[in-house]
DNA sequence: CTGTTAGCGCTTTCAA
DNA sequence: TTGAAAGCGCTAACAG
């Protein structure tokens, strides 16, 4: 196809190309009957407007970009799901970019998107990001919504979950279950997300008069084997009776380590993790989780972005907080 | 940005826009020193070409589309991972469309993509697809590569896995483990993928002189609750001692049902499933799997598509088969 | 309500 | 090796 264009439609209908264009875009300055003649022929000939031409002229790409660390991740794939749903409702197209937690890629992607390829950007920043200065400039040039992983300091539109509160509650949950030596698997430490989760843990300990012990903190590193070794070491030398994992990716090796060391879950140690694993209840034992409303976060982020695009001006900066759900599973065993 | 365009670069450099364009595209009819002058200024001014203008004129969008049933799925998210990797190497952009297994959406998406928005399409067709006639036309209009879920009958480029062989081997594995009444959880029944997996099961039974029993087949339906009820019913009334699940989405409820019915895995029943779950070994008990090389399939599909785009003609129709891995876990218990 | 004209930013002839 | 000119298909501005 593509052979059929507005000019041909116009000839066929004895109209000017401009009128055809207006009719196709449902302009109010075209009579209803003309519109219907145009629509009928367009449909009959299977006409699809050329997006490049339209975009070049109108400066609207009907496309948004999603920049995330990784697609193959339970949270992000669900978020994309939500985003795509909203985009489709609006007849928008969705571009995907993976940073693999490399913040340079992030900046490079955005710079490549400032030329009109997309109307707006949804981003979850990489955990290696420290310097936010490039972003303070970028968000002036294109509508951006941050979701889940965002900056603390810059004035942007953010969609996030109640990281502090849910982490606090998860800790409280373990304490009420009798844990006194609760270890914390620390990740996303450059991000406000990670800091808040940590703070929830620390404050819950304090409010329960349990001493914070640095020896019980393991910080996530890139290397899987080292991570695993560190966790194993923690389990043997510190003998915690509870563990909070701030990411799914650390809870799973922790499970393996417990099995290997013959540490009984939840008898010897209780584990709760931030996780969106659909199969959590089938793990051995079922994994207690802090589950984020991932798809809803994606949807909400997309909705806010479209609101910004509709209004043709940038939204007053705001942060929307959705609530996570704590699902304890120890009892089911 | 976006304010800086070729015309401005040309003025600044005392060159014609045409020469600047040629230099930026590394044309061989431009002197090396001119190219370098252009590149230097372009970089300095952070120039990014307007993709709409470029595409409108050159009919190259540097964009591919990925049409899949669902992002939030272990196989497809890994496949996207592989696709995005190759696309980035080629400086291409990746659009994502979810069909939610609705074949009408599929056709609608493709029709919307025939207007130059993308240079090529990677597609995994929906399991509800029966009629392939729209596709026989579509694949003449744009380069398309089918991956994992494709048509049997049409002459297209396909990337797939050894569904028949791996299913045969999985069945053989259960038989060698002593199973005699092996049930089959049948899905993707409209697709050649599903048919081949079924055929592998049937032929393995035959080659081992085990009677094929229709009562042992459960066909996947959309409704989760009904699926679950059917599986439970199968377990109680037919008492199989082995189960092959042709998709992950049926193996998981099967696990739950066994637990609920106090059927011991793998003591009373052995289960193996087509699955790409990274956490398979943490399930209770560890899940024996037929694992597809998901990311590699995505990569390969993208590579072939780019080969088609490079050659500017359509690839001779071919089917590339990658091998799945069978991972038995019963022994680890 | 409809037509005419111009031009978005780029690439591609054709000519020098 | 470079420049001038045309035009991809569409829509916005201006007329009428």
Short description:
With 333 residues, chain A is α/β, with parallel strands linked by helices.
Description:
Chain A is α/β, with parallel strands linked by helices and 333 residues long. The first copy, chain A, has three domains: 6-49, no CATH class; 61-161 and 294-323, Response regulator (Rossmann fold, 3-Layer(aba) Sandwich); 163-292 and 326-332, 3-Layer(aba) Sandwich (Rossmann fold), CATH 3.40.50. Helix content of chain A is 44%, strand content 16%. Chain A has helices at residues 6-13, 17-24, 32-44, 51-58, 74-89, 103-112, 133-141, 163-176, 192-207, 224-238, 248-260, 294-311, and strands at residues 63-68, 93-98, 120-123, 144-147, 157-161, 182-186, 217-219, 242-245, 270-274, 288-291, 319-322, 325-327. In chain A, β8, α11 (248-260) and β9 (270-274) form a beta-alpha-beta unit. In chain A, α1 (6-13) crosses α2.
């Amino acid at each position: 196809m593509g052979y059929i264009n507005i000019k041909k439609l116009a000839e066929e209908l004895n109209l000017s190309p401009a009128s055809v264009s207006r009719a196709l875009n449902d302009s109010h300055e075209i009579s209803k009957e003309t519109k219907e003649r145009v629509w009928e022929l367009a449909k009959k000939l299977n006409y699809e407007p050329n997006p490049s031409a339209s975009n070049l002229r109108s400066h609207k790409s009907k496309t948004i970009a999603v920049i995330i660390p990784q697609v193959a991740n339970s949270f992000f794939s669900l978020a994309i799901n939500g985003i795509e749903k909203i985009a489709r409702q609006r007849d928008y197209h969705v571009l995907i970019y993976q940073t693999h937690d490399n913040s340079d890629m992030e900046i490079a992607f955005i710079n490549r998107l400032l030329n009109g390829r997309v109307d707006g950007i949804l981003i979850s920043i990489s955990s290696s990001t420290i310097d936010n200065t490039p972003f303070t400039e970028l968000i002036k040039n294109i509508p951006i919504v941050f979701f889940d992983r965002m900056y603390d300091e810059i004035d942007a539109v953010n969609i996030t979950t109640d990281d502090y509160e849910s982490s606090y509650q998860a800790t409280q949950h373990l304490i009420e279950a009798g844990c006194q030596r609760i270890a914390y698997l620390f990740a996303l430490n450059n991000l406000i997300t990670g800091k808040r989760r940590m703070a929830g843990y620390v404050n819950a300990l304090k409010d329960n008069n349990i001493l914070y012990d640095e020896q019980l903190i393991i910080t996530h590193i890139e290397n899987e084997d080292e991570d695993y070794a560190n966790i194993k070491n923690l389990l043997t030398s510190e003998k915690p009776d509870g563990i909070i994992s701030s990411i799914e990716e650390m809870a799973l090796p922790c499970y393996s380590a417990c099995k290997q060391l013959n540490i009984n879950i939840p008898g010897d140690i209780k584990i709760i993790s931030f996780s969106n694993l659909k199969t959590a209840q089938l793990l051995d034992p079922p994994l207690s989780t802090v589950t984020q409303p991932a798809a809803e976060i994606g949807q909400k982020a997309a909705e806010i972005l479209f609101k910004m695009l509709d209004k043709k001006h940038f939204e007053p900066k705001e942060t929307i907080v959705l609530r996570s759900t704590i699902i304890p599973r120890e009892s089911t065993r």
